[in-house]
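User: Predict the full complex structure for these chains.
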Amino acid sequence: MTGSRAGQPSSSPVRSAVAGPVLVHALEEAFEKAAAAAGTRALTFRIAGRVVRLVFAGDALASFVRDALGSLEISGGSAPDLTVNLWDTSSTGVAPPAAPWTPDDLGPRGEIRPFSKGPVFAALSLSGGLAAFDETSARGFFWVRDASLLTIHERGAPLLALFSWFFRAHGVHLVHAAAVGRGRDALLLAGPGGSGKSTTALLCRASGLEHFADDYALVSGAPRPAVHRLYGTAKLGPSSPALPGEGDGGRLERAGSGDGKTLFLLPRTPGGDDASGFALRALVVPRVAGHGETSVSPLPPAEAFRALAPSTVFQLPGAGSASLASLAALVKSIPCFALSLGGDPAQTASAVTGLLPPA
Amino acid sequence: MTDGPGFGVNTPRVAYEAFDGEIVAVNLETGSYYSLRGTAAESFRLAAAGASVAEITGVLAERHGVEPDAVREGFAPFLDELLREGLLVPRAAGASPEPLPPVESALSTGSFAPPRLEKFTDMQDLLLLDPIHEVDETGWPRAVPGASTQPE
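Assistant: Here is the predicted structure of the two-chain assembly.
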């Protein structure tokens, strides 16, 4: 059977209401079979103050997730706010249930239209796996045929859609941005790929700032704008500049490669994060000028929004007007700056550091 | 350009946010997003509220201190572009319009700069980041080997 991606939205509230519980029940049954076949292993994390418990059937997926989230791991005694069951078919021998959708239900960003509005969300991953989340029971599922199919992007940012759905319900939003800071203060670095945000973050890290996030971070607006750590990975391509800090004790651990990129683990302060996060002091939009002095100048909120919001929502299945409204409110609540990256990388960190409160 | 029952934003495919002096509209289906400033933002706000062409040109003519025909001439191609890009759709006959947004203070410049739509397409590739084109016998998509590309 071959399906096309075209087609008009075909979901309806009635269909979703019926299909959601059926999908969740089928995934529960499949996971239980996988767990019986391969045994289980649980890892617990505290992310933005929420306890996230990941239960793996077999060992195939655990190491990838632990690489990306490791510094947020806590002991397993706390009651979870979110439980996710994960398995793969290759190591457990358990296939997923029959898919309760048609090819015409598949939309952009891996979206499965009958499950794009909740309370049961589901989307396909880049590797052809499934992420599903039941908002009512705070239970999630992740399945993939074979762990080796996971792309370098998924290994660096596992469970992206799941975290987006879960945290959004708690007023915490996943954004495509890097984050650096000092103490309890943080700056977001936003912009599309190639804009210089990873380079800026790595230069800041080499100068002694904390590198909270490289590709994706969590943000919240209340009680005050804050950044929360999520993945501790950085994905760099061959055109990325030499890693600042290499050779002086700051070498980053490599965690894999693929698609011409190498995945590095960011050393971060270990331990789960509470809900207060790091105070978000400003949003910075780097732009590579490549010559002249590195400089910082105020940026209108609309331009900051254009740097942050589209590249965020176009990566997250189901993200739409509500996500855009939250991001708009965020950029209106903090100072925004353009960072023009000149010819001397040594000027970058000092320009960024100047936007943080004095140590 | 004919006057009709007015227009509305093409929701849920399109969302927009208003800032001081600029509206950013996002087409969630195509991956394009848009910047509208000045008269473009003014026109869009009125059209998004369901105003008819006559209402839009009337309000803008008064605000800018020009004749309605001067506004109409500049507004017509802009409206066509908004419809072509799928940002606005004609409002169904009989649909109730929203109250028009408050008119900002009169500029009385004696001129009307034709509204302009600035389009950005650099995010469209993200919507194509999908190696999934075929579905197997159980209804599950197959990953097409080598078809994967990654977000930056």
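Chain B touches chain A at residues 11-12, 15, 17, 19-22, 24, 26, 28-29, 31, 33, 35, 120, 122-123, 126-127, 129-143, 148-152 (CB under 8 Å).
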